[in-house]
Amino acid sequence: MLKVENIRKDFPILSRHVNGKPLVYFDNAATSQTPQQVIDAIVDYYSNYNANIHRGVHTLSQEATDKYEAARQTIQNHFNAKHAHEIIFTSGTTHSINLVANGFSALLKKGDEVIVSTLEHHSNIVPWQMLCERTGAILKVIPMNVEGELVMSDYDALLSNKTKLVFVNHISNALGTINPIKEIIDKAHNVGAAVLVDGAQACPHVKTDVQALDVDFYVASAHKMCGPTGVGVLYGKEVWLNKLPPYQGGGEMIAEVTFKKTTYAELPHKFEAGTPNICGGIAFGAAINYMDNIGFDAIASYENELLDYGTQKLLEIEGLKIYGTSKHKTSVISFNLEGIHPYDVGTILDKMGIAVRTGHHCAQPIMDFYKIPGTIRASFAFYNTKTEIDALVEGVKKAKMMLS
Ligand SMILES: *Cc1c(COP(=O)(O)O)cnc(C)c1O
């Protein structure tokens, strides 16, 4: 059982006021809040051992290197990767996806097929469209149904021996749908295709085992799971990371440089050119330790309670429609009030100290499917409460009165 009142004390920001009202933070799908334990790790780094890593003989550099590599191992253990060198530090999910998409330029040829889904964030669409433009590969799309689920029989029909790569998210940021990724991965492997799973939205809700999934690439951002912005991870199976060429050239990623020929460093350094976000990587490790200590089973069952409660209370409002009604979903509620623009509701809620997101949530194909410009999205984290949901429901009622 999760003790939410104790947990909330770990997050300094949760006790602030916004527009004279206690902050109700329901924009967790965009970025999560940061506990004191992670803030302390950041302060500790800059106060005590700020130094560049890997090349230094001096004590500070060695301490920073040790902590950075320890964070890599924390991430490895969390995602159950086989090797620490399969964990590549990046600046986030977007960077991780671009790294892989760029690498596949060397592996795809004209007429090859790659598969995406309708439920994706733009960062899991656009880099692949760019890849298709460069290579002449063809982009196929798994459709969705009105519940916000992927149509798996259509996925089966898209797969063939031409399919080289499938990229889908684990959980949709716009609707909260949990996709059947194990089935997607197994079916892709049956035709010899590799799979990249965008775990940005899953990482705060579920503990993923990349070996059990047998996924080829899994990507996530620290800032969605209580860590800082500007750091994330690319997990890749060793055999795939060895096949991909480096993404960026520079320091740290080389074995030897001469003007005749440069040889590249071993994994993971081959993909980590330049000075990384050292403090961010260490704080990412601290964030994972924090969440693992609370436990993902406890987090999931508490968030499900919030989801059920919020869904039921919001649906009591007449004219309110929820988008994304899969039985398999996380604590994201995307909704609209009939005849009212989502932006106007978001603005009124902000006046009451309630932070939600309005718009297309970087997932325009989903909005096109429903023929709407956007939604109001309330996304709950394990530090939110039913009392806060009550405030949201009151706020939405008020907004409806003011706007209709
Ligand atoms: C947030 C998010 C991204 C983008 O992550 P960045 O940290 O902005 O790179 C991609 N996909 C999904 C599903 C997301 O929720």
Automatic annotation (TrEMBL):
It holds the Pfam family Aminotran_5. GO terms for biological process: cysteine metabolic process. Residues 24-392 form the Aminotransferase class V domain. InterPro entries: Aminotrans_V_dom, Aminotrans_V_PyrdxlP_BS, Cys_dSase_SufS, Cysteine_dSase, PyrdxlP-dep_Trfase, PyrdxlP-dep_Trfase_major, PyrdxlP-dep_Trfase_small. Keywords: Lyase, Pyridoxal phosphate, Transferase. Its EC number is 2.8.1.7. Its cofactor is pyridoxal 5'-phosphate. It catalyses: (sulfur carrier)-H + L-cysteine = (sulfur carrier)-SH + L-alanine. It comes from the Bacteria. Belongs to the class-V pyridoxal-phosphate-dependent aminotransferase family. Csd subfamily. NCBIfam families: sufS (TIGR01979). Catalyzes the removal of elemental sulfur and selenium atoms from L-cysteine, L-cystine, L-selenocysteine, and L-selenocystine to produce L-alanine. This is Cysteine desulfurase. It comes from Ichthyenterobacterium magnum. The lineage of its organism: Bacteria, Pseudomonadati, Bacteroidota, Flavobacteriia, Flavobacteriales.
